Amino acid sequence: MTPTSSGPVTLDARDVPLGGVRGLTVHRTLPYRDLPTVGAWCFVDHFGPTDARMEVLPHPHTGLQTVTWPLAGLIRHRDSLGSDVVLRPGELNLMTSGAGVSHSEFSADTTSMHGVQLWVALPEHRRHGAPDFEHLPDLPAASGAGWEAIVFVGSFGGVTSPATVHTPMVGAQLVVEEAQLDLEPTFEHALLAVDGPVEVDGVTVQHRDLRYLPVGAEQVRVAAGGGRVLLIGGEPFDEDLVMWWNFIGRSHDEIEAARADWESAPTAGRFGHVEGHDDRFIPAPPLPGVRLTPRRRR
């Protein structure tokens, strides 16, 4: 369904085969037609449970933060800042691209893999300049009647994540029986049905779908039977975004320049070098035959 500002709506997940060496299908709910963002959250991919392995060679990013949240399995992250860490369920990897960064992600064990990959659009004051990376193994927990949470971004349930973000926002993993949850009314929110169908304010949200709640909601009732639900939200993001491949900019020309920089120097230059891959990398796809325009909600 197409979301509007007049009320909540369910965003249906669409299957996206990533192909290549990954051989992985993800279930994507953001960006959605007519709704490019929820707060500054601009990308939500839910993957697994699956026995497929994650094998993502070095690739570039601009204008965003990657938020990697594993639910099962271990992920080894390496980047052009020299980071080399193994990410476990309940831990957060947060990479800020600034003007340019590159990284790789590979499965670090042979168990079933399950998780969510999200992107956050960087505002004008932070989308330029130096990249950064945070690995946060100790995140705050909160609980209430019928629910418990790990808060990986922003504040929820009286606790605040140490993760560095650049716009007002929230991200939390909830385990919910049935509960009334307090929300920040200046935020728009969305809830991802991670483990199976859930009810949000009496509406059934199918497994992997995202329920969008516009600004103004002070509470939401969720029934998940002890399953996990991902809550994201933030102040509406009012900057134009041109999104293509792994880049976020403000114009076609910015995206074209980023692609050219990656293709001309994929293991050095603007995006740096990721150790351990023998100069292998993911090449950029061709640009479309039309000029890219900003994604705007309607």
Automatic annotation (TrEMBL):
Domain Pirin N-terminal per the UniProt entry, residue ranges: 26-120
UniProt entry keywords in alphabetical sequence: Iron, Metal-binding
All copies of domain Pirin C-terminal, residue ranges: 178-264
Cofactor(s) this protein cannot do without: Fe cation
Matches recorded under Gene3D superfamilies: Jelly Rolls (2.60.120.10)
Coiled-coil spans in chain: none
Chain positions recorded as Fe cation binding sites: 59, 61, 103, 105
Gene Ontology molecular-function annotations: metal ion binding
Entry's cofactor comment: Binds 1 Fe cation per subunit.
Family from the record: Belongs to the pirin family.
PANTHER family: PIRIN (PTHR13903:SF8), PIRIN-RELATED (PTHR13903)
Name of the protein: Pirin family protein
